Amino acid sequence: MAPLQTLFQEHGLPSLRLKVDTTIPVGQLRTRVEAFMEMSQLETV
């Protein structure tokens, strides 16, 4: 596990790990980030 991800976990902060590849369309990455942001907002409410 990445050190930053471990730190986030220790403090109860959500994190998103993206594997970026030039063959993945930008729209798919945008969708994943937007979904993560929505989930993160729901957890804090």
Query: What structural class do you assign from the helix and strand content?
Result: mainly alpha
Identify the overall geometry.
Answer: flat
Whole-number mean pLDDT: 86
Gyration radius from CA atoms, angstroms: 12 Å
Q: How many beta strands in the DSSP annotation?
A: 0
In words, what does this structure look like?
- The chain has a domain at 17-45.
- The protein contains two helices and no strands.
- It has helices spanning 3-10, 26-44.
Topology:
Elements: H1 3-10, H2 26-44
Brief overview, please?
The protein is mainly α.
Protein traits:
45 residues, mainly alpha
